[in-house]
Amino acid sequence: MHPIIFAVLVTAAIGAIALNWLSAGTSLLVGIAIALVSPHPWVTQCRSYSAIVLKVAIVLMGFGMEVSAVAATAGTTFWITLLSLLLALILGWALMKLLKVDSQIGLMISSGTAICGGSAIAAVSQVIKPPAEKTVVAVTVIFLLNLVALYIFPVIGHWLELSQFQFGVWAALAIHDTSSVVGAAAQYGDQALNIASTAKLARALWIIPLTVILSLILKPKGMKVTIPLFIVFFVLAASSRSLIEANLVFDWLSDLSRYLLKIALLMMGLGITKQTLAAIDARPFALGVILWIALSISSLFLVYLIT
Questions:
Q1: Which pLDDT value is given to residue 163?
Q2: Distance (Å) of CA 28 to CA 192, 221, 265
Q3: Would you indicate the residue range of the signal peptide (predicted)?
């Protein structure tokens, strides 16, 4: 399709988001529809810019939270986060052997399920140094499951009559990428969004001990472990809310974060291609699905235990 038509469709979608006509989930769906109907050469850019916009949205979201609430949520979810992480890694290893999935692909899918999707896969790939095609398989499996989670988790949450707190924690534990966590929680309610964002960022920090342990086992050369900067800025934003009297400005920045979240999800959808969907191998996909279902059920059980 002509680039002008693609540009018109994207502009119309952004306008609909600005007018608040599209929810977070619908924004992603519109992006996918545009990408499949109107193939374009900017797939890589859409994916990379989506990640950047999402991180900015998360940082701005911090201006709508009190740092004490952030700390309380992180403390409350520490043990169930650790338990769900260990379960995902151990079960992922067992399923990898059972299904005879390539060990590098299996480790990346298990890590992405256990911690935070694509970010965990990227961190682990720095340690195990897989071929590019293996990383693509792992990322694609996680990405497709994220799309499913974005839509079915709010439905299941309402069906189970989960509270805002329960759903926020469950989404943070059971959904892979931060984008889908905040997207699903945004559809459930503002309190769920705040809880999910905080718990998810606390979960993301487990990338650090995981990569350190892998590096000690594999001893790769030149591997560096870093703390994601957007998490640091999120904490600073939440801290500023408690220290500075500028609530009107902070409320505006918090509202802006929700707009940017929808833009990020739209761009994520624009990064989908027919080739991406056709490249999935059955065994890695089966590993991802079974592991994700097991983590979703077990983490929901843990959420019920603490509430």
A1: 94
A2: 19, 39, 5
A3: none
